[in-house]
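Run folding on both entries below.
>entry_1
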Amino acid sequence: MINVAIVGCNGKMGHFVAQAVKDNSSSAPMFGIDAFGESSYDFPVYKSFADTEMVPDVIIDFSNPAVLEDMLSFAIDKKIPCVICTTGYSKEQIEKIENASQEIAIFYSGNMSIGINLLIELTKEAAKVLGNDFDIEIVEKHHNLKVDAPSGTALMIADGISETLDVEPQYVYDRHAYRRKRSKNEIGIHSVRGGTIVGEHDVIFAGHDEVITISHQAQSKEVFAVGSVNAAVFLANQKAGMYNMGDMLSDKLK
């Protein structure tokens, strides 16, 4: 049984993660970390890692970039693997995550859905065939409470496509300030925020007289929570290093 610490347990995703940890026969919640402290869970919740002496087997983080430094410090000191699902990190914070992976196992992904990771693989294959002749645009849609834009998933998709192209593309996030024709060396990334949209991503390949769109819709946040718990079970037995959904899927196929 893998004992899990849930960072951001009082948030919307935190509640889904707590339930998914309980529902998985290989895991159990040990404690939570949340700035709001108190909760109705049947496990203890602390405001910071400094408030507990408990040592989990794995940490699952669905919180806020501001928590990163405290979490990594605790994890490195105790040699605890981390599943990091939070988005909106700065380049400096991402570098800290990469540096931490030299000492502990870290599973880092902007999206924990198996479906979205399949979409990324499909768009990479499409880009190999179409990339030189088709314009590529990514449209992501999320609920009106999401703070970061573009989504971490949209950037994952763009990065995946970039790996397959002959020339590194320029990411263009907003064209209202540009008065010029679209260049071929662009991937447009556009954000929509509204209502309770869980998460939708469309990758558009626009060519001459034809358009191909590859899409994914998340119907519930539960898919991300289940994915994070599966990642925690996978990560518990891994050596130090950086892991992602592709590593976990490959392990399942062995």
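>entry_2
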Amino acid sequence: MSKTLVFCLDALCASDVEAMRAMPHFGRFMENCAMVRKIEPVWPALTYCCHVSMITGCYVDRHGVANNEKMQRGGYWNLPWYGKKSDVKVPTVLDYARQHGLTTCSISWPVSGGADYDMNLPMIVPYGYTGWDPTPWLEGMATKSLLDRYFYKHGRYLKGPDRSLDLFTMAMALDILQDYDQPDIMLVKMCDLDGARHRYGVHHPRVYDQLRKHDEEFGSLVEALRRKGTLEQTNLVIVGDHGQTDIQDILHLNVLLRENGFIRLNPDGTLQSFDAIVHSAALSAYVELADPTDQAMKQRVRDFLESLKDDERVRLAYVLDAQEAKECFHVSGDFDFIIESSLPVAFGERIDAESLYGSKLPGDHKIGAATHGGNPQREELTTFLAAGPDVKPGVVVERRPMVDEAPTLARLLGFTMPDTDGSAIEEMLR
């Protein structure tokens, strides 16, 4: 039976495809690949929300990961990021693969800590960590045999201020392919293209330098399979989780909520109390009410948000309450409204800012030079490329939703996934 290897590039844009054709390893792969030109991410198009949908075939309201950071009522920011597989409320394609007797491997995939896969090295060390001992997050969350065998050799890549998850990921992936039987399904997730776009913008030359590095990494994986003798029996899949969009400014909508009496501060500028408060999802935002049962306040907040559609400084594109958000974007969680601006802005969260607008912070995952997290109909989309023994070469599908990816991977592995929101991209399959 064929095997499947998924190479995921965080923030791979549909517009990157032509540049990839000119690169040695991507270009060779694309000579005979099938592709979906544009994959629509889930709402919000944030990394963790998308990665979970990619392997469950379900939207956010069913899998339960509605942001990168955990959401909790009470006006909290900077909560820990989702990390454990137990946070995911539905099975993944790897779970079903194991049920069908197949071997599974996941390297640096978000929200996979403690997953019951044959080999698992989750993306679980906290975002922004610069310390020298990441093992407290990995122990009990990663496969013990892999840590015992390889961490002494490659753990240095996760340590210190210049830590590089991508270097760690590639070192681990190549060693696993060399030392073990190839897993029936293997996920390999890379981060640095996303970081480059957050720092420089969507189409900056340095972004394409980073894409070229990913080309070399992909080439290394292909060569590892060739040397192993399994390349011809492997379906290779290249995917992205979302695109990115260049932004001009940062909109601190909490300033307007404060000025209109919905937020009250202590003398030192910290939060005293609130009726409504904004939590950023980068290009979009969640609005939380202190008391969601207070219908009069809910209406007052909604009226205020609706008025911002005509405010030239804000120009909200939509205001949806929780029920409308579920119906429109298949999202649910601890929030009361979702909003997005029609302007090229990202949402900040400062409650003590002196002005409504602030400066971008290059490299920041929410308010960098470019970002994501909004309506998939608005921002740049991502793509899906596949080639191998079970893929029809040269097939081009124009557009599909992200939730179709997991059922498609399942079909490549010889089974179907029950009860998903998506369906397999049959046009691409033999």
